[in-house]
Design goal:
Elements: E1 3-6, E2 9-16, E3 20-25, H1 39-42, E4 46-51, H2 68-81, E5 87-92, H3 94-105, E6 110-116, H4 124-136, H5 142-148, H6 150-153, H7 156-160, H8 163-173, H9 180-191, E7 206-211, H10 219-228, E8 232-237, H11 244-247, H12 249-261
Parallel strand pairs: 3-4, 3-5, 5-6, 6-7, 7-8
Antiparallel strand pairs: 1-2, 2-4
Helix pairs in contact: 2-3, 4-9
Length: 266
């Protein structure tokens, strides 16, 4: 699989499908594989481009502080490398922060924007949780740490029907778990980023999506985004939590495709 050298790291990316380019940016502690359940529907109509943010997956994981803007610059450099003039951009969780920065800094590159389970500025409780995640990454064995995040990601029904066991099994055998220092640096990047005073500058069509049962980034966070981005619409997916890319992939793919169909290139 291809990598490019950009901003002093090797950045892994993956391209599937044909059509208008659609950039997918994953969230905290997640690499590009986190989009796997929604990709099959998306590649039927779009050229889907996924990347591993610095610190995770097959990209470099330098043991040094990083910022959300820096990760947005990595994504922008990939867009340039691929010769893409303008793309649809979707970001989940921290990936939504990255997508916001990418759009604010490079508005000419973003045709439309999809923000999933994301936020502009976290509140005190959210910041405390993210700080704890970063600290725990250095205290727990890697696979135990990954499993400790699951209750924040998935709903009660995901546990009741046993699907959570599939995720635990993937963690047990996944060969590309991020190192503790990378998780820590990503957590601090989240804490130090705030787009609340700049998202009003986003002018492209924007879809904000959140799970109704998201206990990590609640509906109020997404409402703040939608209220402050001029051309934004808010959609709440029932019976889904923060990890709805895995828990409710068909529902997420459906709303993404419906939105994108309204904003094709002319």
């Amino acid at each position: 699989m291809p990598k490019i050298y950009v901003n002093e790291i090797d950045l892994f990316y993956n391209v599937q499908g044909t059509g208008e380019p659609l950039i997918l940016i994953a969230g905290f502690d997640c690499d590009s594989s986190y989009w796997s359940a929604v990709v099959p529907a998306l590649i039927k109509k779009y050229q889907v481009i996924r990347l591993d943010n610095r610190g995770v997956g097959k990209s470099s994981a330098p043991d040094s502080p990083c910022t959300i803007k820096q990760m947005a610059d990595d994504a922008s450099a990939l867009i340039n490398y691929l010769g893409i003039t303008q793309a649809h951009v979707a970001g989940h969780s921290m990936g939504g922060q990255i997508a916001q920065e990418l759009t604010v800094l490079n508005p000419e590159k973003v045709k439309s924007l999809i923000l999933l389970s994301s936020w502009a500025k976290g509140d005190a409780k959210f910041n405390s949780i993210i700080e704890m995640f970063g600290d725990l990454s250095n205290q727990l064995e890697a696979r135990i740490f990954q499993k400790s995040l699951l209750p924040w990601m998935y709903t009660k029904n995901f546990y009741i029907d046993g699907r959570i066991n599939d995720i635990a099994t993937i963690i047990d055998y996944y060969p590309f778990l991020p190192p503790p220092h990378a998780i820590y640096h990503q957590s601090r990047a989240i804490l130090h980023n705030d787009t609340s005073d700049r998202i009003s500058n986003i002018a492209c069509p924007t879809l904000v999506v959140v799970g109704k049962e998201d206990i990590l980034t609640p509906v109020a966070f997404s409402k703040q985004l939608a209220d402050n981005i001029a051309n934004a619409e808010l959609l709440v997916i029932e019976s889904s939590g923060h990890g709805f890319l895995v828990e409710s992939p068909d529902a997420v793919a459906k709303v993404m495709l419906q939105f994108l169909a309204k904003h094709v290139f002319i």
